[in-house]
Amino acid sequence: MGSMEGLKAESNGGAQAMNGGGEMTTTRRGRSSASSALPLEVGTKVMCRWRDQKMHPVKVIERRKVPHGGASDYEYYVHYTEFNRRLDEWVKLEQLDLDTMENDVDEKVDDKATSLKMTRHQKRKIDETHVEPGHEELDAASLREHEEFTKVKNIAKIELGRYEIDTWYFSPFPSEYNDTPKLFFCEFCLSFMKRKEQLQRHMKKCDLKHPPGDEIYRSGTLSMFEVDGKKNKVYGQNLCYLAKLFLDHKTLYYDVDLFLFYVLCECDDRGCHIVGYFSKEKHSEESYNLACILTLPPYQRKGYGKFLISFSYELSKKEGKVGTPERPLSDLGLLSYRGYWTRVLLEILKKHKGNISIKELSDMTAIKTDDILSTLQALDLIQYRKGQHVICADPKVLDRHLKAAGRGGLEVDVSKLIWTPYKDQEEEELRRDQRKSRACRSSARHSQQQ
Fold this sequence. Notes:
Number of helices: 11
Structural class: alpha+beta
Low-confidence stretches: 1-28, 103-136
Helix content: 25-40%
Shape: globular
Number of strands: 21
Distance between the termini: 96 Å
Largest sheet: 5 strands, antiparallel
Mean pLDDT: 81
Strand content: 15-25%
């Protein structure tokens, strides 16, 4: 905020001040003074001091009375217009520069807002990539309804294991948990409580040291557990509640019976601690091999997201199917997948001698042909000649694209994957039930004969 020196009151409620070049500039405050405009109305635009101690433009989304405060004592829920909704938060009045309230949007204001934007490095730290369906499936009315319903985060923080995590978005927890400043999660069964004391009592009784379900992968300190939503309904629902805190336009499925959850964990002598997960439908007519994916904030930028994507394709290979993520993808989701597809496809093209078809690439990678085509077209590595697609794989061009795609992250050691596809599991369970049924009938006949 500028110095008050050189400020000159005017009868029209505006103010004049000297700018850096010695010229007079005018800031319009509207009809009434800033103090008489309190409490601020929803929709008010103003500058706000953020955690970097710089002023950023915000829009007031909601307001609430300060307990035991005066008539005009409010806190304000604001959206930082430069950044993602995940940074929306409650702020106190003293964080707001009321002199900037209701300014005319002109070049000077735009220049000021631009000068206060974060550096590219700061933005990258905030914009951790995670994959989620985007906004495309919502029409304008549905999108407005969604944003109205979810505009204010109902849970500010969670404690999960040894981490306290700031949440990003609204999640539809049962109403009794709304406006709880902090929720405490059991990191093994994902039960959640309002108070630390409740969690401590719970941990003495909880006998889980890993997610429920089958451990299907173990390599070093990493484990993957397959959790059947039908067999572990409460865990599946709690995982969805937890994930929604960090995913914006993502449908929360209460009917978790239809899904399998693949939960990635870091393991030590205390147990297996959740890092992230992906889910997939048990039966997908569209060949989706992934419905939702999340790496929890403390574990991001460590290659786990790429690992989860790669793991979903290794399962598709085991099933003997091609796979693709559920559509639509967000921009960040498409970026993550395009990076994976680029690395996998170009590594094959570098090593392969002779011609190779799109179908052969799909068979080798379990990547859907449409995804292969769109990736190679985006890289300008494919041409359409005489009624067919031809891959143009110049080694220097491949190297340049591979370098741009970045590192591949943690690799899945397929030799450590011990897994039976769900269809085969169903058939085995059916055979087991039939054997039990025959045994029961045989036992009943034997009893009758006696």
